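Ticket #425: bound-state structure for adenosine-5'-diphosphate.
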Amino acid sequence: MALVLGCIADDFTGATDLANTLVQEGMRTVQAIGIPDGPAPEDVDAIVVALKSRTIPVAEAVAQSRAALAWLKQAGASRFFFKYCSTFDSTEKGNIGPVAEALLEDLGDSFTIACPAFPENGRTVYHGHLFVGQQLLSDSPMRHHPLTPMTDGNLVRFLRRQTKGEVGLVPFRTVDHGAGAIQAECEDLRRRGVRIAIVDALTEWHLRCIGEALGDLPLITGGSGVALGLPDAYRDAGLLDAGLLADDLPTIAGAEAVIAGSCSPATLGQIEDFAQSGPVFQVDPFKLAEGHDVAADALKWSEERLAQGPVLIAASAAPDQVAAVQKRLGRDKAGAMVEQALAVVARGLVDRGVRRLVVAGGETSGAVVAALGIKGLRIGPQIDPGVPATVAISGTDAVPDLALALKSGNFGKPEFFRAAFKVMP
Ligand code: ADP
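RESOLUTION: The complex was predicted; output attached.
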């Protein structure tokens, strides 16, 4: 069957999170890194285009999202999803509202919903107010976010500041009555001229009801949670085959390695766990800053070890050490320097026969994927919540087939690095 769902995500790990949900619900899914320049891959039910548009200027976010939509339309998608963070990360200027309105306009429609709820991760929406665990969004640590401080938990009021059109609410009492009630309320809101409705949701059942009710809307916007019910709706509508092996990936053999650039507590714990049974090379940022070719040292070190089993090359360090590096070099310079070194290591490892690679850290993953010339990822089975095993799509013969697991810093259980290789194809 043809491509059904075209998704636009405002960041890389958010795109993976959504793709992971769609695969688990039975859609064969590819994540494209940026807007593809070639034809759509075959045998795919959903494509998630990962942009980096969360905090860029509004006009640029709108332009990139429109271009992604145009590509997805010509690829054959008939339903569209705009994915943002479950904490509604944005500023008073945008980019959620302006992008949603632009996409609606390009699709020739006048109504959509906005639902960031993700109950499994503690994000719920009640009477239009977003809660993070038991705290209102504006009382949660998100109020101190460096780029998108969220100081208003009332999403109806907050989204109104970003949009030209009217913002409404599908309240809890309606959602709790199930799909029929949600559908009727949305039709009523549309008639009354509402352009975007915040939809309350406290449970996974609510999210599935929203999917069932609104699966035929051209555009849905929200976190990955509200995508949960969509594949069922598409199957009911005859758009999607039942019983697809959505997470089936080709087997990829070769040497195994882990690259860690995240300094989050979860990653530090995973490195400690790995070190009990496998070799670890520690990248020293001070040596890097002195111009020493630490990447070459790491690659030389790996050569004798790769045949025996997975190796780990890490820049990750405890907060006091990171602070010392940042004090000396500045935060951005230190980050970019380490990312660059790890990207060179990734390229060198692949040249030395590594075909199965785990990367820890969101920015680090971005740098590695760029260095390897990877254009997309075919999404496979889940390793840990939010982190699937994937196979890279390069778009050129110069890059060999690779099995990849890209983990945002704080995700995964302590034994993640060892577990990943067991789940990877
Ligand atoms: P996370 O997903 O945990 O946020 P990222 O990879 O996105 O991880 O960000 C971690 C940042 O820290 C990267 O820019 C990386 O280059 C940088 N970094 C890694 N190790 C060190 C270190 N020892 N000192 C300073 N910065 C570091």
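RESOLUTION NOTES: The chain is about 40% helix and 20% strand.
TICKET STATUS: resolved
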